[in-house]
Amino acid sequence: MVTEENGRLVVTWKYVDAKWWEIIAKSGLTKVYQLHIKLNVRKKEAILIDVKKDVSWGVGPTKVRLSGGYFRGIVTGIEIGDQWGIKENIHLGKIYEYKFQPSEIRTPIMNTILKSGWNMRLGIW
Hints:
Blueprint: E1 2-5, E2 8-13, H1 21-27, E3 29-40, E4 45-59, E5 64-73, E6 79-86, E7 92-100, H2 103-115, E8 119-122
Parallel strand pairs: 4-8
Antiparallel strand pairs: 1-2, 2-3, 3-4, 4-5, 6-7
C-alpha cells in the first residue's frame, strides 16, 4: 500500500502473508515494514528510509505481556519466522510461517527511481 504522509510517500508492507493475518493477530503478533520516500523535485532526488515496527502481546492465566519495537534507518538481511501450537480446529500444527527481506520491496522502487532519471540515496531521517 502506498500513501502520502507529511509530504512523503510511504510504502507499507504487512509482511505476514495476508491469509494468515487474522490468525497472527489473534496470537498477538504484528509486524510492519515501511519504506519512506522523500522527494526533492528541485534536485530530482529521492531519499529512501526503512521503518520497521513490531508489537507482540499475549494473555495467559497468570500474566499479561506486551512488547514492541521500532527501527528507522537502513534495514538489511532476512527475517524468517513460524509458530506452532493448537490451531482453531483443535489440532496441533503450524499456526503461521513467513519470510521477509526489505530488499524485495526496496529494490524495485530504487530501480524505478533510477530508470526515471532521478538520483537516489538511503537515509535515516
